[in-house]
Structure formats: structure tokens, C-alpha cells
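Cross-posted from the bioinformatics board.
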Amino acid sequence: MNPLLDQFISEARDFQQSIGEKLMQLESEPGSRALIGELFRMVHTLKGNSGLFEFPEMTGVLHAGEDVLDAVRDGRVPYGRALADLLLEAMDFVLLLLDEIEGVGSIGVEHVASSARLARNLRSLLPAGADEAGNPVDSGAAASVGAPELPLASMPEERRMEWYRAALSGDALSWVEYAPDAECFFKGEDPLYQVGQVPGVVWRDVSARKPWPELAELDAYHCQLVFRLLSTAEPAALHELFRYMPHETRIIAISPLALLVPVGDPDGGAVYEDFVADAIALLDNGDLAGLERTTRCMLEFSAPKLWLASALRWLLLILELEPGNSLVLRALIESLRTLTTPCWGDVAAGRRAAGGDGGQSTADGAALAEILAAQREILALQDDVAWRGGRLKAVAATLAACCPRMGGDRRHDALEHALEQSLAENKAAPLLGWLDEYGPALLAGFTPAATVDARSSMPEPVGAALAPDMPTRVEGPEGLRLGRRSDDVPGTAKTLKVDQTKIDRLMNLIGEMVVAKNSLPYLAARAESQYGVRDLAREIKTQYAVVNRIAEEMQDAIMQVRMMPVSFIFQRFPRLVRDTSRKLGKEVNLVLEGEATEVDKNIVEALADPMIHIVRNSLDHGIELPALRLAAGKPAEGKLTIRASQAADRVLIEIIDDGKGIDPQHIKKKAYEKGVIDEATLERITDQEAVNLIFAAGFSTVETVSDLSGRGVGMDVVRNAMEKVGGTVSIESEKGKGTLLRLSLPLSMAVSNVMIVESDQQIFGVPMDMVVETVRVPRAAIRHIKQHQTTVLRGSIVPLLSLNALLAINQEQRPNEDDEFAALVIRHQGENIGIVVDDFRETVDIILKPLVGILGGLAGYSGSALLGDGTVLMVLNPRELT
Amino acid sequence: MAIEFQEKTVLLKGCVGVEEAELLLEWLQKTPCGQVDLTACTHLHAANLQVLMAARPTVLAWPKEAALLAWLTSSLQST
Amino acid sequence: MQRILVIDDAATVRLYHRSILEAAGYAVDEAINGVEGLEKALRAPFDLYLVDVNMPKLDGYGFLQELRKTELPQAPAIMVSTEAARSDLERAYVAGANFYLIKPVKPDALLTDVRLLLGAPRP
């Protein structure tokens, strides 16, 4: 995709998010001018960014938002809930559009109506008659001005007519002016060779930047040459040829009209009024044949060297080539009244206005006029600010830049003098004087003869690629370059945004590295046992230690890269809590703590949904309605705290509310009714055990399925989700005081410590954090209760399950020589279970890769890993097995 | 040698490089009426062109190479 | 090579301007706000400044005022804004801008103005 669009989407997402956060903050600090200011700035910037592309639906809404915020900033509109709701809605809409842009590259037409509605609603908050877009700057100052002066008139008329003819038949014609850098010879450049490469040269000239000095003074290696040429090559080819010297080159596409310059003696006395009147009449009547006759006749009576004769020859040429171009014909005829070349820029503009072809922009002249007008305006400022001197210098620098250096040094001297005077007197007048004196001449330098190819210093493909309305066209080297640029902005980016797939790749590589490294001990063992070279074995082990250390550090470093702050999830909660509590009619103060705590990205992602579930539960069932709270002697506003902290290699997330808490008696009753517990248990269990029942499958105290947390989903879903990523969830609750839910997760889940077990001549891995202990159980100690095997360990009965049976392998587990079975005791749903295997082996650190594809659906496995000897280890998930 | 100095004439031959410009300039400074023979010249480094343009010696013979000829005549022949 | 400093808090806008200018052969540096812009200018002054109006820390007006107070060579500055109001234009000129462009800036218009404001390349 287009790197610019990528950048836009990524930045826009950030803005969208920050804007949402600021809006939430504003809820708690409604009067904060700083927040409003920041909010305005962000919406404004986002709007500006979107304007680079053709996303009017987005820009429109943002523009409305910006106007409203501007009004709030100025105090014209009060900030209130309705406004906040609308802005939040607008931001949601923007997010929707961003997703769509990222997905399909554009915005569907179905959003036009929503965009208009949102913008209208936002604007409806503005005071009536508000001026929504300000007054546009008058930019029409010099729209008719054309292009720089080219010495076309001095070229032979026949040649120009020839080129005109060729141009009309489709040939390009470009003016190239190439003034090599004075030091270019030292850089190994040969400008003559360079211009020799230009194809299709129809006219050429070499001159010096300034008159040649005395031969004795000449520096052969100080380049003074200026090359000028006309070429029929395509401008793109010329840009390509001169791409390494854009500053030294001007490439101007010449419109055919620029060639149409009659030259010759202006016959002083006579005015050809009669001819002009006749010719116009013939033209108006469409009698082109008559016009041609009259013109030829007139030409025969005129001396060929006259300006008149030249104009007539052009007239005949136009009649021959473009008889339908009456605008040009008319202008040419009328020019005979004044004997000056028609202002072709205006003619072309007239043609555009008349609905003819698009024509080209007359950029340079117009731009220069605007720039000069701006300097005049700056000089006219009647203030006396501290930086006035600097401002005057900047104006002088601008004027100097606008004043071509070639042969114009007197003007530069005068400018310098004017600046000195201005600075000395602290008055703008001397500079204004310079502008009055030289400004008109500067502008006059732009005769409206040629039209400028405004992209003259920019190669065409890049121009196309940058045009925001074709965002998908960046390809090839330009695209690559853009991509690189966005990455290596020096000193700007303090954080680097890296594509997640790159990090994943690093993860995979370090995984392979760990595996490769782990093969070294095998190698050492073989060196010793198979080849009997003990010294080599020792050396390999030493090297292994080094590689091992580096690999571990590297792994650690990569893990660090994957860490991200939990604020990534936390930032969703202000909005969630606000919307939910409003819907429920509750008042809740949300407190976020420890947002900077960093956790592995996968863990962060795994946390989001369970946390949302818990928070909704707290709002729904925990925190009471304001009236009930007041009645219970609590403040009307409930408090919900979400806190993250790190404890050793685990991260703790606590979600605490000061709501009504959980009533153990109620839970017990419910659990009994739902058949989760039997009567005996009901009598026996403690209050804490009762509270824990909410995690049991099929248990949900929700009496009515609410819009929010209900849907029949209980806390068992949360527990399962936590267990999937190696986490646990626990609860503490006191009736009437509130509830605390604690999630505990590993900081990183990339490296797992597994125990290798053997069964049916295969090896399997079992995550160590599930293994409570390993025991050898003599055959005699196994009791059969119904179909189940059990044994007694430390005074309690432990059910025994055979791994072969669990994996549907039709094979008895094998005892060892002493007729003992190997049992792996794991903790499952608060109970110990023994899994009988054939034998235990060592524990290893592995990089666990989840099973993907068809294998991904296999229950009972949490993934696979490569071992040092290259074999694949299937890692079991005993929880899913049992 | 791409450059050969005779008594009143300098012969530029083949591809005349940037180093020759210095020699050419020295010779033209010492030989005010020096003439140039470009018959065998196939390319001239721009530094040499600059020297020739500043010195304006009589050109006895122009190069045969068309592109070079076009550039040299437009720079050395006019006025 | 002529050096241009693009100051804008929006990375997208910086990339946009940078791409256009670099494609035309200019050397471009970036700053994310007025403060960073000043730091960079003080380290090595630029030949042209392209300045956004609304930025955190130090906005475009503030940047220009501070720049114009320094003893640095005073290069032309273009203020780039989405606002087209007359009052904004004047404020930009007072602060020390030499020209004013409205976002989104069209590539050809930007290049035309930049070329004029940089003048002929220094020999």
C-alpha cells in the first residue's frame, strides 16, 4: 500500500484514540482550557491529515468537530454532555471509516449520509450564523500572469513555425536551461557530455553566466557555462536525464502558443484598422476562405520585414493548421492594432473558460506575484515587535531569492543596501522602495508566452504517486524510498513502530537459535562417547555456555520488544464505564492505576476480553444504584479501581469495586439449585469456597439476562480464558463492602519450561507450571474404585488416569523394573489428578509454538516445540485431556 | 595525446578530457593568435569548451561528429 | 544542496511534504514542534522553513517569532495551515512568515513556491 496512506491510518488511529481519551478526561475536568485546546489541536490535525486524501466523509465530520471545539475554546459554546456524546459518536464514525479505508482503500458511498448527519448535528450546536470556514484568502491576485521569459522570439520565425506545426501534430517541445554548478568539474561532471545526451534537440545555445574575464584571469575549472536548448523529447525523458541536477536545471514545457510571436519592424505610422475590422467581420461570419484571401492580399502589399508581415504569416499558418481556433485567430488579428504580441496566457485562459481543453497552469508568474504581494504586506505591518529585525532580514532573503541572480547583481546590491538601511532605521521603507523599483520588472520578466510545467523539477512518476487522489499507485523504487523515509526520520521518532510480523519473525528466529544451541550438548556427548575425544567435548561445552548466555540475553531482549503497557487495554475503560453506567443510571468514578505496567503483547491481547467482562459485571451487579448506595450509607458515586502491578514474573490485574459484594449464602443456594453442588457440600463449604463457585461451569447468578454482562456467560469463561494463557483468577468479596477480582498472568508466554515424559515409546511435554509433583506408585498401591484407578497420596485420594488412555492409545502403561508406575500429579480445577506415564525425563526450556491449521483444532495439545536434536515435541495440555 | 601543440595551432584529437583544459588555457594565454583544429575531436570536456569560449581562437576545422559539431558551432560560431 | 525544515506535529503531513520535496531533490529535515524546530535550526540553519500553525509545546507563530529573534541567517518561511481566514494570514506575517499556504498543499504549487523562495541554487 501507499506508505503515505499507511502513515495516515496509523497516525489517525492514534489521534482517534487520544481524542477519545481527552473527551473522557474532559468529563472529569469540564472546565479545563488546556484539555479543550489539546482536543481542538488533535481534531484539527486529524482533519488536516485526512484532507491529503479524498476522504470527504471523514474530513467533513472532523471539520464540523473542529469548528465546534473552536467555538468551545472561544467560549462561544458551552461544553456539555450532548456535545461530548456527539463528538464521541463522530470519533466512532471516524474509526469505522479508518477500518474501511485500511480494508478496502476507500470509503463506501453508504457513509455519505451518516457523515452529513453527524456534521449537521455538530454544527447545530454552533451559535446561529457562525462563520464556519472563515474568509478565504484572496488568491486571485495575479492569475493571468504567465511564465518566465524565454528567448523564443529571437529564434528564426521559420523554425518556430516548423515547431508549431510539429507541436500541433503531437510533438512535445521543452525548454531546458542548465546552469551547472561552478564546482561541477571537480565532481567529475561534464556538462557538455550531459547536454549531448539530450535527444531531439532542435535549438541550442551555450553562454556564460557573466561576461568572460580576461584570458589571463580565467579559471578553467570554475564552470561558468549556461546551456539552453529546445528539445522535442518528452518532458518525462528530460526530467529523467537531468534528475541528478534538479537545482541546476529548469525544464519548461512550451505550449505551442509561446512560439507564436510575430517579430519585425513595427511600422510606426500606419494603423491597419481597416484590415482588422474586415478580418474580424470575416472571422465572425465564419468565412475563413475570405479571411485567408484578405490576409494573403495584405501580406503581398507588406514588406516581409515588418511586424505586420510576420503576424500575417502566423495568421495564415493558424488558418491552415487550426482554422477552428477562433480565439487565437481573433487575438492575432486584434494584435495588429497595437503591434504587440497577444497575451497568450489570457487567451488560453479564455479558452479554458469557454470550456475548451484544460490548458496548463501558469504557476510561476502567479506564484511570484503572490509572494511579492505577501512581502509588501509584511513590510506594511505597523508594529514594533522584538523580532522585527529578523523579519526584515527574512523579507530581504525572500526578495533576493525571487530575484534571479543571472546578470542581476545590481539589483542584489541594491537589495542589500536597502536591507541595511531598513535595519539601521528600523523602518520598512527602504525595502519597500526596492520592491517598488524592481518588483514590476521582476514580474514583467514573466511574459505570458510560455506556460510553465509546474512540475518541472519533479519527475512525473513521483508526482503521480504523490497525488493524494490516487493512493494506491505507489510502486517500485519510489514507493520503497518513501517507506524507508518514514522509518528513519532522524531524531523525530523516539519510538519506532514496527510491524508485528517482524517481531514474530525475530521470535521464530530466536526459537530456532535456542534449538540449534541446544544441539551442542548432544554434540559434546557424541564427541565423548562415540569418538572418545574428551577435550573436544569439553571445548564444545565451554562454547555452548557462551552461546547459551548470548541466546538467553537475546531472547530476553526480544521479549522486551514484545512488551507493551497495559494502558493499551485500560484506555478502553473510561468510555466503557461511562457509557455503561449512564445506561444503568449509576454513578461511577473510575480509577486506573499502574497503566505503565508492561506485559507481553499476547498476554495483553488475552486480557482484554476477560477484563471487559469483569468490569461489566462490576457495573452491572456490583455497584448499586445511587439511591441504594445512599441508603446503605455509602457515597452515591461508586468507585471502580482497575490496577495493574508486577509481582516477580507475573502481572497482577485487580478490579475492585465498592459495590454490594457477593453474598455467600445466595451463591450456595443458587449453586445447589443449579446442581453445581450437592447437599453435603452445601452444608460443608466455607464462605470463600462459596464465592469461588462463581467460576464453576454453568454457574451464573444473573437472574435476568441483561443487555450488558448477561447473555448467560458466567465467570467460568473468564477463568478458561485466563487458563489458556497460563493465568489464574481469584476473587475476594465481602457482602456490602465490595468485590476484588485478581487476575494473575505470566509476564511473557514465549518460553515455557516443560517436563518430558515418555509413553508408548513416544515423548510428550507437560508444562511444568501444571505439574504439582512426580511420584512412583507401586502397582500394589493402586486401588480400583468402580472403573477408576486411584491411589492415596499424602492422605488424600488421587484419581489416576493413564496417558495412553487419554490419548486413545490402546496400550497399558509400562511400570519400571520395580513394578512402579510413573505418575505425574497435576492440579486440575482445584483437585490433584495423577496422570500415569511410562517414564519421566528431564525438563527443558522450549519455545512453544501453537498448533496451526488442521492441527490447531486438536484438543489436548497446547502446541509443539523443536528439541535440540531436531525432534518435535508435542506439548500436552492436561486440562483439556482430562 | 589528445592535445597536440604546434607553433600556431593546437590539435584536439579524440576525446579531450578535463585535464587538458588547463594546458589548453596556458597555451592560449601564451599564444594570443593561436588557432584550433578540431577535425579529429570526438568529444570535448566542457572545461575545454569554456576555455575556447573565453579565448575565442580561430577555429581552423570543425569536428566531424555531428552532435559535438552542433554544440561547438552554436557556442563558438555565433557573433 | 538546499535544506528545508518541515515542522509539523502530524507525521502524515511531514511525510507528505518530505516526499514531495525530496523527490524534487531538496534535502529535508523534520521537527515535530516549534521547540524541536528551533533546536534544529540553531544547530544548522536551513534555507527554507515549512511551518505548521497548530502544534503542541510551541506553535508555528511562536516558532517564527523565536526564529526571527535569533542571529541566524533569516531564511524565508512558509506557514502551512488549514485556515484560510484573513486574520490568520496577518498573524502569520506578523510572526515572521513570508508566505502562506493552505492545506492540503498541492505538490506542484508547493514546488513552485519553494523553488521561487529558494531562488537560484547557490553557486
